[in-house]
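I am still learning, so can you show me any protein sequence you like together with the matching structure tokens, please?
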Amino acid sequence: MHPPYGNQDGSLYYGNLRGAKAIDIFKSDGAVAFYQPTFTYHGFRYAEIINYPRDLTTSDIRKVRVNTAVKPNTEFKTSDQLLYNIQQNCLRGQLSNLMSIPTDCSQRDERLGW
């Protein structure tokens, strides 16, 4: 499951996905495997993994960031690490919605270009 938000109780929130079926199902035979969806992408902050055979750690999971390759035409520099991190988060947010044309809400059913 690929919801963008979590609830206070730790469960995953799916309300804003509307009609999107943001679900990938991968069944393993127990061997080490790599799974990556084909012909789609998901915007998400959280992922739900069930029936994992042992305690899941962050090293067991890898995310892949995808966006259209664009060349920056400006540069931002600051000695303030917090301000730099905020700027980088803004840039990553813009890139996550750039798939050939600007899109909106990659996790929902409205990947509409403006």
Summary: DSSP finds one helix and four strands in the chain. The first strand starts at residue 5 and ends at 6. The helical segments are 81-96.
